[in-house]
Amino acid sequence: MENNSNNNKILAKKKGVVVSDKGNKTAIIAVDIFKTHKKYQKKYKSTKRYKAHDEENKCKLGDMVEIVACRPMSKDKKYKVV
What we know:
Blueprint: E1 13-20, E2 26-36, E3 43-53, E4 64-69, E5 79-81
Parallel strand pairs: 3-5
Antiparallel strand pairs: 1-2, 1-4, 2-3, 4-5
Protein backbone atom coordinates (compact mmCIF):
# COMPACT_ATOMS: atom_id res chain seq x y z
CA MET A 1 0.00 0.00 0.00
CA GLU A 2 1.49 3.33 -1.12
CA ASN A 3 1.13 6.49 0.90
CA ASN A 4 1.05 9.45 -1.46
CA SER A 5 1.92 12.49 0.66
CA ASN A 6 1.01 14.96 -2.11
CA ASN A 7 -2.70 14.30 -1.66
CA ASN A 8 -2.60 14.77 2.11
CA LYS A 9 -1.18 18.32 2.18
CA ILE A 10 -2.53 20.67 4.80
CA LEU A 11 -2.55 24.20 3.40
CA ALA A 12 -2.55 27.30 5.58
CA LYS A 13 -6.01 28.84 5.24
CA LYS A 14 -6.92 32.26 6.59
CA LYS A 15 -10.14 34.31 6.48
CA GLY A 16 -10.09 38.06 6.24
CA VAL A 17 -11.54 41.23 4.77
CA VAL A 18 -10.35 42.92 1.58
CA VAL A 19 -8.92 46.32 2.51
CA SER A 20 -7.46 47.22 -0.90
CA ASP A 21 -8.08 46.03 -4.45
CA LYS A 22 -6.12 48.67 -6.36
CA GLY A 23 -3.33 46.40 -7.62
CA ASN A 24 -3.77 44.44 -10.85
CA LYS A 25 -4.49 40.79 -9.90
CA THR A 26 -3.62 41.63 -6.27
CA ALA A 27 -5.80 42.15 -3.21
CA ILE A 28 -4.67 43.11 0.27
CA ILE A 29 -6.43 41.06 2.95
CA ALA A 30 -6.59 42.05 6.65
CA VAL A 31 -6.72 39.01 8.94
CA ASP A 32 -7.69 39.52 12.61
CA ILE A 33 -6.50 37.08 15.26
CA PHE A 34 -6.88 37.18 19.03
CA LYS A 35 -3.79 36.70 21.14
CA THR A 36 -3.30 36.34 24.88
CA HIS A 37 -0.76 38.46 26.75
CA LYS A 38 1.81 36.21 28.44
CA LYS A 39 1.98 38.04 31.76
CA TYR A 40 -1.49 39.57 32.18
CA GLN A 41 -3.56 36.90 30.34
CA LYS A 42 -5.62 39.64 28.68
CA LYS A 43 -6.87 38.92 25.17
CA TYR A 44 -6.17 41.48 22.47
CA LYS A 45 -6.79 41.71 18.74
CA SER A 46 -3.91 41.73 16.30
CA THR A 47 -4.35 42.51 12.60
CA LYS A 48 -2.00 41.34 9.88
CA ARG A 49 -2.24 42.27 6.21
CA TYR A 50 -1.43 39.80 3.43
CA LYS A 51 -1.07 40.38 -0.30
CA ALA A 52 -2.99 37.71 -2.20
CA HIS A 53 -3.16 36.78 -5.87
CA ASP A 54 -6.62 37.42 -7.39
CA GLU A 55 -6.55 36.08 -10.95
CA GLU A 56 -9.89 37.50 -12.19
CA ASN A 57 -9.83 40.75 -10.12
CA LYS A 58 -13.12 39.66 -8.50
CA CYS A 59 -12.39 40.87 -4.96
CA LYS A 60 -14.00 44.17 -4.01
CA LEU A 61 -13.41 46.39 -1.00
CA GLY A 62 -15.05 44.95 2.13
CA ASP A 63 -15.51 41.38 0.83
CA MET A 64 -14.90 38.49 3.24
CA VAL A 65 -12.50 36.07 1.52
CA GLU A 66 -10.43 32.99 2.29
CA ILE A 67 -6.78 32.78 1.27
CA VAL A 68 -4.45 29.80 1.07
CA ALA A 69 -0.67 29.57 0.94
CA CYS A 70 0.88 28.94 -2.47
CA ARG A 71 4.19 29.31 -4.21
CA PRO A 72 5.62 32.85 -4.14
CA MET A 73 4.12 34.96 -6.95
CA SER A 74 6.32 37.96 -6.16
CA LYS A 75 8.39 39.35 -3.31
CA ASP A 76 5.37 39.84 -1.03
CA LYS A 77 2.60 37.71 -2.61
CA LYS A 78 2.62 34.19 -1.13
CA TYR A 79 -1.16 33.60 -0.90
CA LYS A 80 -4.00 33.27 -3.37
CA VAL A 81 -7.73 33.94 -3.02
CA VAL A 82 -9.94 30.84 -2.94
